[in-house]
Amino acid sequence: MSEAGPLRIHEATVQPDWIDYNGHVNDGYYVVGFTKATDAVQDLVGLDQTYRETSGCSIYTVEAHLLYQREVPPETPLAFESWVLGVDEKRLHLFHRMLHADDGWCAATHELMLLHVDTVNGGVAPMPKTIVDQLAELRDAHATLPVPAEVGSTFRPIT
Fold first, then answer.
1. CA-based torsion, 134, 97, 9, 125: positive or negative
2. Which pLDDT band, with edges at 50, 70 and 90, does 153 fall under?
């Protein structure tokens, strides 16, 4: 499953109900787009609906950092690039970039830490080795790429 670049497995078009009173995408709909990109990564490696139903396990977001970089107008075609930055048996560190699908400008980025959770018995639980191995292969391929500048970003103090 080795990839030469970031994954580009989710696309969307801005819908009319995503637009707020300022005439561009409401901040919450950026998160919806990134959630769908996360779902696409999960589906790719087998953490899909069938897995959730048969295993009683799922992925929960425990930390996220979103950077809004540009307003997105109505009907914009979007593409999402995704990096697997880290993985172990219980955690997954992802990074996504939301791009204009045709023009390539970046609208926002989203970095998140996810935990594999046993939804039946409660608590964090190890992922199957086959899934960890697939994620590790993506992590290793993505480690050969330049780290996106937004990874690990923090707020700057107001002076």
1. positive
2. confident
